[in-house]
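$ fold --in a.seq
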Amino acid sequence: MKEVATVFGDDMTRVIHGDSLAVLEQMIPDASVDLIFCDPPYNIGKVFGGKVEKWDRDEDYIQWCQRWLSLCVSKLKPNGSLYVMTSTQFMPYFDVYLRDKIDILSRIVWSYDSSGVQAKNFYGSMYEPILFGVKNKAQYTFNSDDILVEARTGAERKLIDYRKNPPQPYKSEKVPGNVWYFPV
């Protein structure tokens, strides 16, 4: 019998190298994963290791993505979370497909300055979209205290919230919004 994948690590931390569909179908039990982050091939013609990453037909790419997206959803625990990145061209297909399978809580924009190839006849992409969804919006893990950022209104301007009794300074930290700027 042919081995599905090569596994590196131990029970606590594993990297599984193999075909994503085979690994998801044969090696990962249903309802066993807390968090999944997917960054699949984007089907936009980039070259990786000498191979052009482009399906012959967009429909074939979308069907392949729907297969692994469904498998990912089935592998999530009832309180599990899913982050999915893809190209701006294909994110609408992912979004619509996942809407009746998970609760999409955020549509995140990862913004960056791309100094590489610049578009000349259209607007070049300066962001990548990310969906954040959960199986159960009433019960999931979101470690907000671990990702706090400076709240400019509260920290820099030292504004007072007069809606509170007694009035209080605005908080100086907050959970980030859905536009993230990280250089590539």
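$ fold --in b.seq
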Amino acid sequence: MRYDTVFFDLDGTVTDPGIGITNSVRHALAYWGITEPDRAALYPFIGPPLKESFLKYYGITDGDEAVRRYREYYADRGIFENEVYPGIPELLQDLRAAGAKICLATSKPELFAEKILVHFGLRDCFDVVTGATMDERLVEKADVLREAMRRANADPRRSVMVGDRRHDVLGAAACGIPAIGVTYGYGSREELLAAGAAALAASPGEVLRGLLARSPHTPKNI
């Protein structure tokens, strides 16, 4: 392993939360009388901070109310309308066997992230779990990742981020570490490369092979 510490995003990287998140967004939009029949139109909500997305895509300026309405559905139902990507448990186990410290850095509230990992039997795979605060004082990816690095006592020279959206790549750059963009999630190849991803991986198996074989500082595909 060229890296001592590997940081993972959650949504779109470890689990596929598409149904739960989009159902929760629909629930929130209904408060303003907005109906969105096209589920795919809501996929951009997966990854970025919620307030940012409600404003960007639907012009909702009351971000606090939008998040509150979203969580009405998500906290009890949407959180588990979710599934682990095939190959993720094996990726985490093999990284652990190779001696890596494995950490989660997500813009999802840490409380929810912990519940999801426990629900899917993955909590013991992670040495550190860091997420946003419920009041969104800590929510931007760079800030969450910086806190995760502090908790993990991570050396930036020996750390790498794995995520599916531009926010993961840009957050990693702000913290001085490279990022591997995964194209099996919700971000496109173009989005990830434009943000500066050091490498791309089309599956959890490719993430593992890339980390074990070489540094992601050079290739654009692993």
